[in-house]
Amino acid sequence: DAMVIQNPRYQVTQFGKPVTLSCSQTLNHNVMYWYQQKSSQAPKLLFHYYDKDFNNEADTPDNFQSRRPNTSFCFLDIRSPGLGDAAMYLCATSRAGTGEETQYFGPGTRLLVL
Amino acid sequence: GQQVMQIPQYQHVQEGEDFTTYCNSSTTLSNIQWYKQRPGGHPVFLIQLVKSGEVKKQKRLTFQFGEAKKNSSLHITATQTTDVGTYFCAVEGAQKLVFGQGTRLTINP
Fold first, then answer.
1. Do A100 and B92 meet the contact criterion of CB atoms below 8 Å apart?
2. Which of A21, A37, B4, B30 might form a disulfide with A76, Cβ 3.0–4.6 angstroms?
3. Integer-rounded Cα radius of gyration of chain A
């Protein structure tokens, strides 16, 4: 089935040790999003790619970077994870320009920072 | 930027009771979407409302969009334990969705 896939599902890293989370999609959607979600909170948008155009949210720390090498893949790089970066990271996709901007979410990667 | 207020933040009901969550915006919305996130899961799209006064039903779930397109509600009739989770409304901003704070529904069986 077409879907949004995130790897790994769980990631443990050390304070300050760079980590990369990956997302892939088989929906051929042109927009891909990265969200951070902490317990009992709504997903918080970090940034998104509209095709190859990168759109950073104003309050996203510089510690968070992203790459989209092709339509199907998108990566979230956390350069120096802090304890406050422990969270669920959700990738989502949508097809812009259709009038129905439904977002399809992956299962998420839960990040633990030791 | 676009903002939407969602209430209540939490709701605990007995199984079989009804449940309603509300979203309100100060500005007119082009559309509104609803998502459900099960505990430990990810948000899953439920429905999109576009027209003024629109009412849509999915089995025991009824979604409404206000006449002024500034508010929306999700009503669940006769809740079941499978309804447990957090329900989010979401509105479109510039190439992105803005989520409400969510209403977390817990159910006493």
1. no
2. A21
3. 13
Chain B closest-CA separation from residue A40 CA (Å): 8
Taking CA–CA distances from B86, the nearest residue in chain A reads A40
List Cβ neighbours of B76 (8 Å cut-off, separation of 6 or more): B18, B19, B20, B60, B61, B62, B83, B105
pLDDT tens digits for range A38-93: 998 999 999 999 999 999 999 999 999 999 999 999 999 999 999 999 999 999 99
A19 contacts A78 by C-beta, under 8 angstroms: yes
- What distance in Å separates residue A84's CA from the closest CA in chain B? 19
**Percent of chain A surpassing pLDDT 70:** 96
Tell me how many helices (H) and strands (E) chain B has: 0, 11
